[in-house]
Amino acid sequence: MTDLRLHFSKTFAARYISHLDLMRTMTRAIRQSGLKAWYTEGFNSHLYLTFALPLSLGFESLCETCDIRLLEEESCDPAEVIPRINAGLPFGIEVFNCGEARFKPGEIAYARYICELADAEFSCGKIQDAACALLAKSEIPAQKKTKKGGMRTLDLKPLIHSYKVYVEGENCYIDLTVSAASDNALNPNLVLDQIFEPLGRMPDHILVKRTQILTRDMKNFE
Question: Is the pLDDT assigned to residue 30 strictly greater than 80?
Fold first, then answer.
């Protein structure tokens, strides 16, 4: 058997497909492709799929991965595999590369996000000033929901590796590289909540796009 890592994008309306539905969508596409993929053994046999870092609902991404396992007799040529899978995927989800996995999911340490923001009332300059004021603080306390449904106070500052705030056209952009380790991942929405709390509300337009998944050595997760 051969393990294969698919690299795909999830954009436009596809960003509203939940992770569970994404698994079903990818399973259906692989079945329709005719690829001889491996199924788990046992009473509840299912297609072997592993997604490294599940994406939050409503986020776009240019760097998603999905690991599959092909039987030995199946060709792993990307020129054959990619179009066969893409033929069964909906608009907005597209496999653009596949190959042997270089890193294990446990080696993921960071993720980079571009947050696109605009508002009819708040100027780009006002949004930029609010973002810079918050991100420059030595501590950024925030309330985060626990797995048990409770709330705990968390300092976001140590979880932000780097940031850049800039204005381009009619939008303000926040380029965030944050912790994505399994036990210490930071959702960019927590940062946005803190930025706009002093302004009284969230902006009219928010689009968060994940552009990179990175290892501890800041290498692209491949």
Answer: yes
End-to-end alpha carbon distance in the chain? 19
Within 10 angstroms of residue 138's Cβ, the number of other Cβ atoms is 6
Query: Quick one: pLDDT at residue 8?
Result: 98
Is 148 in the same domain as 97? no
Sign of the alpha-carbon dihedral angle for 118, 119, 124, 127: negative
In-domain check, residue 221: no
8 A C-beta contact, residue 7 and residue 38: no
Ramachandran quadrant class, 191 (left: phi over 0; alpha: psi -120 to 50; beta: rest): alpha
User: pLDDT digits over 137-153, tens only?
Assistant: 999 999 887 777 788 89
Residue with tokens 């046992």: 42
Q: Are residues 115 and 144 in the same domain?
A: yes
pTM for this prediction: 0.94
Q: Which residue has the tokens 């140590």?
A: 158
pLDDT the model gives residue 80: 92
User: Is the distance from CB of 97 to CB of 27 less than 8 angstroms?
Assistant: no
Closest CA to 151 of 163, 141, 136: 141
CATH number for position 171: 3.30.70.3190
Per residue in 162-185, pLDDT (tens digit) is 999 999 999 999 999 999 998 899
- Look up residue 153 and give its amino acid: T
28 in helix, strand or coil? helix
